[in-house]
Design goal:
Blueprint: E1 5-10, H1 19-29, E2 33-38, E3 40-45, E4 48-53, H2 56-65, E5 71-76, H3 82-93, E6 100-102, H4 113-124, E7 132-133, H5 137-144, H6 151-163, E8 169-172, E9 181-187, E10 192-198, H7 207-220, H8 225-241, H9 248-253
Parallel strand pairs: 1-2, 1-5, 5-6, 6-7
Antiparallel strand pairs: 3-4, 8-9, 9-10
Helix pairs in contact: 1-7, 2-3, 5-6, 7-8
């Protein structure tokens, strides 16, 4: 079988639970050949969990190095600033013939409100060129400027993101609406679908990254966006269910 090449434009997670580590592991699980363009490094410092953006020139060199690879799909993760996001957008515009998944990571790092607002505006520029966007509840609130407190709010926000230009939308509710169910909402411009799994007691991090890279993998493998979301929802549930409980997230949040 011919190899399918999938690019992750994403950041380094120093604890190896999310970011590029989750992307590559998911691609490998789906028998895809993963490539990376690294947007940032992270570290736990005396200021907390910090994100250090890749130098603009270095990031540009990374993308230029990959310009002739025949990619079958692209997954976008953490874009730490406007300069990096602009370069990533230029690259995506040159690959409009392949599926692109945007995971709009906005709240894993310390950011001032003005900076988050600027990044939101920048991420909205990707919408005409992507196949599906996968925000969590907080990211969906930031992108839509809507308050999301219920399942109906999630559905309304998904429709609004579609109106803003996203062809397909999945909003990750996690366990914020229910202590017993992890609820996600999918919208393709025609139909709302709700996906639920039981909430698991875990300290794992990186589920959102894994979910987005799994969706990218499934679309590359020929599934529709809705099918990809359904399969990826189950994939993440099973991955968490059978994973090691490292607990780093709890440790550094309590410091």
């Amino acid at each position: 079988m011919t190899n399918k090449y999938v690019l992750a434009i994403s950041g380094n997670d120093i604890f190896s639970g999310g970011g590029l580590y989750a992307d590559l592991a998911t691609y490998t699980t789906n028998h895809l050949h993963g490539f990376l363009a690294v947007t940032c490094l992270t570290a736990l410092t005396d200021k907390g969990f910090e994100v250090f953006a890749t130098d603009e020139a270095i990031f540009s060199h990374q993308l230029n190095s990959l310009k002739d690879v025949p990619f079958s799909g692209i997954k976008l993760g953490l874009l730490p600033n406007v300069k990096v996001a602009d370069l990533a957008l230029d690259f995506v515009k040159k690959h409009t013939e392949i599926p692109v998944v945007l995971d709009p990571v906005l709240v894993c790092k310390e950011k001032h409100d003005v900076e988050v607002s600027v990044l939101c505006d920048e991420l909205l520029k990707f919408f005409p060129y992507i196949t599906i966007v996968t925000p969590n509840l907080v990211e969906a609130e930031l992108l839509t400027q809507m308050s999301i407190k219920s399942l109906d709010d999630m559905k309304a926000a998904a429709k609004h993101l579609h109106e803003l230009g996203a062809k397909n939308v999945v909003i990750k509710g996690g366990n914020r609406l229910s202590e017993e169910k992890a609820i996600d909402v999918f919208y393709d411009g025609k139909e709302i679908s709700v996906f639920e799994t039981p909430v698991l007691d875990t300290n794992n991090i990186g589920a959102g990254c894994t979910f987005a890279s799994s969706i990218a993998s499934q679309i590359v493998l020929g599934k529709s966006p809705k099918e990809a979301v359904a399969l990826s929802k189950d994939f993440v549930f099973q991955a968490i269910r059978h994973s090691d409980q490292y607990g780093v997230k709890q440790n550094y949040e309590e410091d």
